[in-house]
Design the sequence.
C-alpha cells in the first residue's frame, strides 16, 4: 500500500479526530477568557492527549467526539450569551446520547445566573421537538427526511 493513499479506515476515523481537535480548540478558547494563556493551553492539551479521548477516536473510531463537541459548543454559546443556539446544541447532544442530560444542572445554573431560564426552556422545547421529529422521520417514514 502506498503511504500517501487514504484508506477507508482512516476516512472513517478522521471525522472523530477532527471533532476532538475542534473540541480542544473550544476548550482553549473558553479557558482563555478566564485563565492565563498558558493554563488555557494546558487545559486543551489535557483534553486532546487524554488517553481515553485519544484511543476512543484514533484507534476505535467512535463518534463520542461529536457528542463532546456538541456539549462544549453549548457551553460556549452560553458564555457568548446565545441562549437559543445553546438550547439547540444541548437538545442535539441529548438526542445523540441520552447521557447528555447529566450536563443539564451545569447549563441550568449558568442560565439562572444569566436570568434567562424561561427563554432557554422555550427554545429547548422547540429544538428538542424539531430534532426529535427529524430523527424519528428517518426511522418511521423512510424517505421523509430526504423531502425536508
Sequence:
Amino acid at each position: 500500500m502506498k503511504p500517501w493513499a487514504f484508506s477507508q479506515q482512516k476516512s472513517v476515523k478522521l471525522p472523530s479526530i477532527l471533532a476532538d481537535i475542534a473540541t480542544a480548540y473550544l476548550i482553549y478558547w473558553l479557558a482563555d477568557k478566564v485563565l492565563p494563556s498558558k493554563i488555557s493551553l494546558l487545559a486543551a492539551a489535557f483534553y486532546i492527549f487524554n488517553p481515553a479521548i485519544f484511543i476512543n477516536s484514533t484507534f476505535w473510531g467512535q463518534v463520542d467526539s461529536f457528542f463532546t463537541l456538541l456539549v462544549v459548543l453549548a457551553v460556549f454559546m452560553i458564555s457568548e450569551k446565545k441562549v437559543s443556539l445553546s438550547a439547540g446544541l444541548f437538545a442535539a447532544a441529548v438526542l445523540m446520547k441520552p447521557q447528555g442530560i447529566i450536563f443539564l444542572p451545569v447549563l441550568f445554573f449558568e442560565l439562572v445566573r444569566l436570568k434567562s431560564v424561561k427563554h432557554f426552556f422555550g427554545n429547548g422545547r422547540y429544538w428538542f421537538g424539531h430534532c426529535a421529529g427529524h430523527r424519528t422521520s428517518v426511522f418511521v417514514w423512510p424517505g421523509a427526511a430526504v423531502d425536508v
Summary: The radius of gyration is 18 Å.
